[in-house]
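The instructor's notes for this session suggest beginning with a concrete chain rather than abstract definitions. Hand out the sequence below and ask the class to guess, before any prediction is shown, which regions might be ordered.
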Amino acid sequence: MRAVEESTIDRRGLLVLYVLYQSTWTIAMFYAWPEGYRLPPIAPPAPMMIQVASCLFFAAALFGDQLVVRILLASAYAAMAFEGGVVALARDGEIELDMVLFPVMTGALHALASWRLAREARKNCSHIEPEDEDDAALERFLRRRTGAAATDAQRLREIGTYATYAAGETVCRTTMSRERLFVVLDGVVRAAFRYEGDAMLRSTKLRSGELFDLRLLNLAGVYVGFPNRYFEATAETDCRVFSVAIADLIQLCRDHRQFGSFLRVLAIDQLARAYEKETAMEPTAAIPRDAYGTSEALDWIRGARSRDFSRPYDADERKRFLKAPSPRRRLRNAWAPLVQPGCLNSFNPPSGEAARRAVEEKTTSGLMGARVPSTPRMPVRLNSWYTQYTRSMDSSR
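After discussion, reveal the predicted structure:
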């Protein structure tokens, strides 16, 4: 509510400043200038298409949505190219090459970006659930647990595989647990593990909606201290799992940076479920909650699928996930003429960066065996003062 009020105040303030500017200029023009003062001569108005391009550039500065901004910029450069090509040829009998070449090249990049963003937005808003039952269940799970869009869920499905294991069959051992991340769709899996430097063998049961080995979620950039010396998962009942190779998941996070946020949300969800089970005073209270805060059904303990997998979308979820917003609503949500100040760069904490590197390099040691890079990897590569400072410090060593 407070954010909405601040946004409204920003819009009103912008309007007030604009009105004050126009009023002051009008008064100065007609009343305040000394008698006999002459303004410099004013040139004729620019050609119509140049004025159209100027209006489109101004409109692009009023919005913060990438799709809206790219469409406006592509249209503006198209108007400039039209003026330098078609209009100039009809008016002067020659083409203004510089008014065509650069607007066409720049506008083409904006048009390509607009097309890709619009295609993805259309897929997400007019999305039909996958026909395969497992694909549809996994998509519902990801959207409810992480907020991932349909296209992002599809990208994850495309790099993963499904597998079915009979009771007593080994799902993975230590080496594979460092190479693949598993999600239990249904059934019960018993995980046996040993912490580094600890001879005690521990075990726990994993059910629908839970992941193993959780150490791999250190890719999110937060070190927690999961077991990594020994790990073995065995199917206690017939179960079905979805797994994805860590190398493919790392590449996916690099190509689509929003997956880093999804992994963080997923890690928090898994830790919250584990904490709720460990701190429960009674066996019935150890049943974790689904994405809507309701305790899972009792048959979940025996291996039934979590409601986040099996429950179809209700009316509210269909409106949220599957219905496209109206153009008016999209423009209203995209309205952002004033940029809100904030940090342009974000880094993982040193322990989280070390844990992330340990997962990528598949080292047996979690935190102590990983080398923290001297300069953090910047999500946004800017020539900032911080980058210059860290480089100068590295060169002086």
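Then share the key points. The chain has three domains: 1-32, 43-125, 133-328. Strands lie at 160-165, 170-172, 180-186, 189-194, 202-206, 211-212, 230-235, 239-245.
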